[in-house]
């Protein structure tokens, strides 16, 4: 992520491979949740992904706390 801030061509590659693949996996999970009636059909996938991954990246980049299991579970509880 830090290198993507300094190198525009790396940023494109990073988004298209690393970031996009993870967002796609999350979208697949959201679609399954919608099919099971656990998540509203009108869920904004883009916003949901930002709300999930944003706090995790924040912790990783700032190093003030680890994104441990408790944090991730609490984050999901808030989002859902």
UniProtKB/TrEMBL annotation:
InterPro entries: Tet_transcr_reg_TetR-rel_C_sf (IPR036271), TetR_C (IPR011075). Residues 1-78 form the Tetracyclin repressor-like C-terminal domain. Keywords: Transcription, Transcription regulation. The keyword RNA-binding does not apply. This is TetR/AcrR family transcriptional regulator C-terminal ligand-binding domain-containing protein. It comes from Paenibacillus artemisiicola.
């Amino acid at each position: 992520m830090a290198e993507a801030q300094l190198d525009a061509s790396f940023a494109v590659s990073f988004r298209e491979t690393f970031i996009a693949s993870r967002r796609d996996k999350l979208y697949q999970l959201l679609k399954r949740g919608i099919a099971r009636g656990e998540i509203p059909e009108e869920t904004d996938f883009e916003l949901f992904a930002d709300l999930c991954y944003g706090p995790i990246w924040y912790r990783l980049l700032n190093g003030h706390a680890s994104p441990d299991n408790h944090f991730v579970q609490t984050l999901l509880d808030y989002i859902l």
